[in-house]
């Protein structure tokens, strides 16, 4: 990689970290095979996240001046970086992958300016994604409306049961048969 390519990579990553990423996760590669890295990248893409192996020095340069600048010390040894706009996606994919494959170690990360250790990334991975949280909020909002609809239907069905019981008592059969 020549100097122009390095500058382009640093510039590209810096723009991503400045404008598009809400979460950055740093991992350590302990001998992942090519097909495992490709599998991880595919899972990342499916969940709206990215995974990139970059030289530590270049990654640290790209983080300068961003809200993620505090995680620069995490870049030591064979590392890779993951990021996502969704505040949970990258953490969830990395955490699930690391739990199944001991060749990937979570080093830490950052959610905005909040630095996370490996345990913090795992805890974040257990939270609902942005889409799941939105669906839960919609469900909470819709629940009272469903209860109100049921409440409005209930008096009519209650009245019908009372009329049927009264008709049965009178010996004239059900209200439906009489009507």
From TrEMBL:
GO terms for cellular component: ribonucleoprotein complex; ribosome. Keywords: Ribonucleoprotein, Ribosomal protein, RNA-binding, rRNA-binding. Transmembrane segments: none annotated. GO terms for molecular function: large ribosomal subunit rRNA binding. Pfam families: Ribosomal_L10. One of its GO terms (biological process) is translation. It comes from the Bacteria. Belongs to the universal ribosomal protein uL10 family. Forms part of the ribosomal stalk, playing a central role in the interaction of the ribosome with GTP-bound translation factors. Part of the ribosomal stalk of the 50S ribosomal subunit. The N-terminus interacts with L11 and the large rRNA to form the base of the stalk. The C-terminus forms an elongated spine to which L12 dimers bind in a sequential fashion forming a multimeric L10(L12)X complex. This is Large ribosomal subunit protein uL10.
